Amino acid sequence: MYEYLYFWSRRKNRCGSRSLCTGKRLSCGCFCIQRELKKSLPSKIKFIQGNVLNYDDVRKAVDGADAVISVDGHIQGSHPLMQTKGMQSIVQTMKAHGVSRFLSLTGTGVRIVGDRPSILDRILNITVGIVDPDRVYNGIEHEKILQSSGLVWTVVRVLKLSKSDKSFKSYELTEGGPAEMVTSRKKVAHVLVDLVEDKKYIGKMPVISR
Fold first, then answer.
1. Tell me, what's the pLDDT at 39?
2. What total of structural domains would you count in the chain?
3. Cα 161 off chain centre by
4. What percentage of the chain has pLDDT greater than the value 90?
5. Model-level pTM?
6. Tell me, what CATH number does 119's domain have?
């Protein structure tokens, strides 16, 4: 079983993923690549197929990277603790290769002090917690691992992802929400790539509010 993972390197122009675009035309990872190409990144991109739960696969992708953007998430049949175990593998590999900048995506169900979730946000996340508790647990544990990792990390949070391909003029990040109801994968990709070199949200978990 392969899991989604996207690695980005400005120096070596390397990306690694689980067949990133295959059957996932609107995936966050594909949009991350498109976003970088628009920012004048040379068009030579290397794809590395692998399993985020396999240390050697992660090592091959992280080697030579300047930053890592992870948009892995649960798919049907994936390991219940995929995100948690995958994060452990990523952190271990990044430390071994001297890569410090890390960005990832999670849901607003991962709460922190100071959050201001909307009523709908609360209702939806309570529902997810009942229907898919592993998803919420993994999000929370993944954040705990980062807290003690020593990496220069940022975790972007959204309420609900959409498959919309619509363009947008701007976006707004807040430190406590409330989150916008639906966020397109294209917007998430813009945010993640923009934050790679932005120091404002280092060690923080901003919410996409607009």
1. 55
2. 1
3. 12
4. 35
5. 0.81
6. 3.40.50.720
